[in-house]
């Protein structure tokens, strides 16, 4: 089975979950609800997910929204049926070309594997349209496919480019997900701009993990976004990306500090935790932080006294930069009433 954490993802928080938990234990204590408003893969929300808590997850990218629903949405599903479908998918040998193989075969995957991925994605769509699987079951199958694709992709962990060497012979093998639906009864999952969503929700703990720099997540994961949406858009360039104008994050633009301040001032919560590392001006220009410490403290101070916690942390980079003194920081505020 795939666990929610078994996906390579830029800036993932797997290694500092205990650190975040320690801060919440000391500074917050018991709480009833947590909003992970830049969820990514959703590991933070899943870490705190229990029967008596409400976890609100959100991500701007649809492929993450699909996975968040698969793991954290409370809707029921038929595991026996899904295991049979997955087993049938794994036994497939596909010869026909399709949208996916035409665009991504012999690039991110071998042509044989790309044909299989495209066939499976189309089959998932057909089963959903014909009411053989529910929305939750569709999300589980899509998430299994994306996690399986990620394991064999001819990349360094994201899809900004593919490795221009002979593609290793690897098979696509899907697995069921490890889902604890009994913990999900109070949960919500959203696919919205964080600055819009924050105006519509309330929670005890608001956890923020926005993009740090100019590297857009929709660029790094365009292939998975394309695969999950399955609108079959025209793609272009060497990396075969589609038009991502509508899903560019403001937190990777020059206006990031302004967007951050807007979010902080409109948050309806008791506590705010922000994860933000100290890349500063150490990496290449695309890696430099878009929001300065001064901007962070200025915005958060309007809501209460700011505390800063630090932990040494080896970041997941693109492989071109090394930072031996990189630290993950958590900025904390108890919101003044």
From TrEMBL:
Its EC number is 2.1.1.72. Pfam families: MethyltransfD12 (PF02086). GO terms for molecular function: nucleic acid binding; site-specific DNA-methyltransferase (adenine-specific) activity. Gene3D superfamilies: Vaccinia Virus protein VP39. PROSITE patterns: N6_MTASE (PS00092). It catalyses: a 2'-deoxyadenosine in DNA + S-adenosyl-L-methionine = an N(6)-methyl-2'-deoxyadenosine in DNA + S-adenosyl-L-homocysteine + H(+). The keyword Methyltransferase applies. InterPro entries: DNA_methylase_N6_adenine_CS (IPR002052), MeTrfase_D12 (IPR012327), SAM-dependent_MTases_sf (IPR029063). Keywords: Methyltransferase, S-adenosyl-L-methionine, Transferase. GO terms for biological process: DNA restriction-modification system; methylation. This is site-specific DNA-methyltransferase (adenine-specific). The lineage of its organism: Bacteria, Pseudomonadati, Campylobacterota, Epsilonproteobacteria, Campylobacterales.
